Amino acid sequence: MNLSDFDYDLPEALIAQEPAPVRDQSRLMIVDRRSGGIRHTVFKTFHQHLQRGDVLVVNNSRVIPARLKGRKATGGGVEVLLLARKVPGTSREQTWEALLKPARNVRPGTSLWFAEGCEAQVRERISEKKWLLDFSVVPSFDEFIEQLGVPPLPPYIKRGKDQVNSVQDRERYQTIYARVPGSVAAPTAGLHFSPEVLNEVAGSSVVIAGITLHVGYGTFSPVVEEQLENHRMDKEIYEISDESARIINGGKRVVAVGSTSMRTLETSADEAGKVKAGKAATGLFIYPGYRFKRVNALLTNFHLPKSTLYLLVCSFAGRELVREAYRQAIEERYRFYSYGDCMLIL
After folding, report:
1. Rounded to whole angstroms, how far apart are CA atoms 13 and 146?
2. What does 181-235 look like in DSSP terms, one character per residue?
3. Sign of torsion, CA 204 206 207 212?
4. DSSP letters spanning 15-81
5. DSSP H or E run through 97
6. Share of the chain above pLDDT 70, in %
7. Any bridge partners for residue 42, and if so which?
8. Per-residue pLDDT tens for 185-233?
9. Beta strand 93-101 with 77-87: parallel, antiparallel or unpaired?
10. Quick one: CA dihedral 169, 173, 175, 179, positive or negative?
11. Within 13 A of 185's CA, how many CA atoms are on the CB side?
């Protein structure tokens, strides 16, 4: 299967640079896989499209302020993007996998300084782009990144130097139900939920189950293999509690909020569709031809052409129906990508 078959033309003006003024006032497209019907509404009506006995599965991972500005002994600046903690450490001393920019003059042993008492030493290069860094900070690592880190917005959201740590991005590039710190990108399908909409969902005899998948940098990585079968996903850590597994397995219809929830559920489900509780890693790449085991409906944003996310949506709804949905979205001036509008595929 060829990657070039999953391309489309998107006007740059439709790439959302800011979130909707109110979370639940983003636009919502309803796509019916059985009839091929497409309807247009607003997210405020989301609960009206669910059914009694549904289970809504949300990813409760919390985005950490993972971008840091450091300096070498020479005075040269280096931007650090934290990816994942690799070695158990103390509250002050931790080892992280990270991206460095620029990295051309960085060597193992290079020291990076962030603030008084906050330093990191480059331990080793572990791939073409990734490094291991040993941090020593005060008063604690969590407080260190909260004070000095900024939200790791995706590269297609542009910010000036005076906007990179805005209050709006710190609040809005985060779901309202985020609980477990660890993601370096937001599970963006959940950004549309307001407390009011969640209350409406709960009041319509729909049960909400939380799972955790820490979104990694791989969510930004392009597919470079023309033959899809050759692409490999970066692995991401997920966890499903015993209680959430019980709720999900008891649901009549499982509605996944976002690709992260879907990939977690499909990874943990057996051939009969029963979800297993536990903590593990997933590198599941879903593209057309995949047989879904547990997810019955999907809430998702509008994604980059030729991306793993777009391929997942095409796999779930069918390439031709998704092409038509995206054609209508462009015609109707929907807003695309992380801060954009969304679609519910039933």
Report:
1. 32
2. EEESS--GGGGG--HHHHHHHHTTT-EEEEEEE---GGGGPPP--SBGGG--PPP
3. negative
4. B-SS--SSGGGSEEEEE-TTT--EEEEEGGGGGGG--TTEEEEEE-EEE---EEEEE-TTS-EEEEE
5. strand 93-101
6. 99
7. 27
8. 999 999 999 999 999 999 989 999 999 999 988 776 789 899 999 999 9
9. antiparallel
10. negative
11. 22
308 Cβ contact partners less than 8 Å away, ≥ 6 residues apart: 219, 223, 231, 233, 259, 285, 286, 287
Does this model's pTM top 0.85? My answer is yes
What amino acid occupies position 135?
Answer: F
Tell me which DSSP letter residue 293 carries.
S
**All structural domains of the chain:** 3-63+170-345 (3.40.1780.10), 67-149 (2.40.10.240)
Spell out the residues 6+ positions from residue 128 whose beta carbon is closer than 8 angstroms to its own.
none
CA dihedral sign of residues 324, 193, 41, 37: positive
Q: Which residue, 132, 124, 123, 137, is CA-closest to 93? A: 137
**What does the block give as tokens for 230?**
């050759």
